[in-house]
Amino acid sequence: MTTAQAAAAPVVRLENVVRRFSDRPALDDISLTLARGEIVGLIGRSGAGKSTLIRCLNGLDRPQAGRVVIDGTDISTLSEQALNPVRRRIGMIFQHFNLLSAKTVAQNVALPLKIAGVEKAARLRRVMELLDLVGLADKADMYPAQLSGGQKQRIGIARALAPEPLLLLSDEATSALDPETTQSILNLLGDVNRQLGLTILMITHEMEVVRQIAHRVLVLDAGRIVEEGPVARVLASPQTDTTRSLLRGLSPVLPADLAARIAPQGDQALIRVDVYGPAARRPLLAEIEAITGRPARLVHGGLNDVQGEPYGRLFLALGTGDPALVGAVTARLQPETTAIEVLGYVPSDI
């Protein structure tokens, strides 16, 4: 394999992976890839199969069918001894940090290097590089009990990076942190991804975490991937009930007082438009007015941004209730938007 081919090959490839416990499928015919330098969010409810998937990725569990390929090696068939070099290329960060309380910060970070047989001077150099990277070089001689939750997680990240992994698995790494600390950890992971080109899989049940950091999202439900795609696209127009449930609170919902005024007929049509990418940059109100000859108005919703990609949900009053004009508007916008729906008709004073 050439250098260019190696760079283009996925870091992770799962092919039709099945893992069952008794008669219950924890993973049911899972296939996915993770590209080099990609941050992917894996979301799902409790019991969806996220933990089993992580254990299959780091070789702690083995599928009953399918292949788990890490950097070109199918680890599902390797012996424990053969697995060790592969595991050293996979970093893990945990919800509860998993630091050793009797060891200093520096000793915790150095532990994977010590296990790998790295000599002491090289270990110390690497530890100080990593503590500087995570902004805690002055905490080297402290113990975990002397650190805040956010500092502990930074140490956990430094430890995971010590053996220079090509893949970082983040297992609910921000779930035990307050919002401000969560943001600082996500910023750090984003910096690590950009500086080191590290592939990161973020396992979480919090879509807000995925929105802030991931390039792509996978939705897991009952052991199956039920939806996947660019984060902005999935946020703009979720296709499954599972995804819509996980997104509840992130997507605008029509206020109850306005929803109560919707009727089968009325002065003007009210439509919901989901937009993503180029469609979110279009002058939709001007386009609608050009069709109807009447000004359209945004009555609720708005735009947001993920990794520089705009997305949003807009509730628009068209200024007309003429069925022909309403049909012309939806026909014109349908190819340009992620989803469009006529919700009904509302009074002109909306």
TrEMBL record:
UniProt-recorded name of the protein: Cell division ATP-binding protein FtsE
UniProt entry tagged with the keyword Cell membrane: yes
GO BP terms, alphabetized: amino acid transport
Keyword Cell membrane belongs to the record: yes
GO molecular function annotations of the record: ATP binding; ATP hydrolysis activity
UniProt organism field: Pseudogemmobacter humi
Name of the gene encoding the protein in the UniProt record: metN_2
Family recorded in the similarity comment: Belongs to the ABC transporter superfamily.
A single GO cellular-component term on record: plasma membrane
SMART domains recorded: AAA, NIL
Ranges for domain ABC transporter: 12-247
Swiss-Prot/TrEMBL keywords: Amino-acid transport, ATP-binding, Cell membrane, Hydrolase, Membrane, Nucleotide-binding, Translocase, Transport
The organism's place on the tree of life at top rank: Bacteria
Record's function text: Part of the ABC transporter FtsEX involved in cellular division. Important for assembly or stability of the septal ring.
